[in-house]
Design a protein that fits this description.
Largest sheet: 7 strands, mixed
Number of helices: 10
Strand content: 15-25%
Radius of gyration: 18 Å
Helix content: 25-40%
Order of helices and strands: EEHEHEHEEEHHHHEHEHH
Number of strands: 9
Structural class: alpha/beta
Amino acid sequence: MAKNLAFTTTPSHTLRKDKGEHKVPVVLIHGWGLNSGVWQPLLELLSAQDDTPFEYITVDLPGFGQNSELTLTPYSLGNICETLNKTLTRPAIYLGWSLGGLVATHMALHHPNKVLGLITVASSPYFVEEEYQQNNTIWPGIKSHVLTSFHQQLAQDTAKTITGFLKIQAMGSPHIRQDLKLITQLVMAHTLPNKKTLDESLNLLSDSDLRIQLKTIKQPFLRLYGNNDSLVPKKVIKLINDLAPKSEQHTFMQASHAPFISHLDDFHQVLKAWLVAHFLNSTS
């Protein structure tokens, strides 16, 4: 049985001073190869309010960051979410970036009583480009040979592979150098995952397909995208609109795969407005 995950809560106090009630938790889940350090600039803005009605929980996936020593067999969305479900006992809003979006979506589908709302950032229910039989077109995504090359590179140099992946994520940003420098500093400040974890988690991007299940999501659902994202192409947005017609979506113009880095202020405003519109009443 896997141990519980380590996590961090911001602000550290979980009760509202004026009401003595628990704040609404928002769980932030990072993407492939990285860790919860990527959320630091956003957390500083989100928690700046003295008595915010929300608390923000950052958790590293098994094998990453604070949880680098925790292993799962097999390394699957199901086992990851079972571990999250065991660790985080209170219902929460789940926000997942990239691979973290798959995890958050799986939580909403398979542990709906623990998910108050779902937010995916630069994510897709299926990440691989392929022929899309539903309407005889191409499903936009990452070309399969790119994922294969990452597996091959991991065998040679783990740190170099992660650095290369960070460069791809910053591509499309109007200030790519600054974004790349910042995200690298944030990620490299924490323990890097080993090759086995990276290989197994990369398989989740290759093999996971939640497209058909999206229509069954009942919780408030927000999808956030970068218009210049090279890993989740903007052409996929309309297709996902059709799969999840009750969801809401917002695209950040000139943004890359990490809009919470490249467009931090705009991202913060959009996210906070949505949280307040859908969940403020539950805090009063």
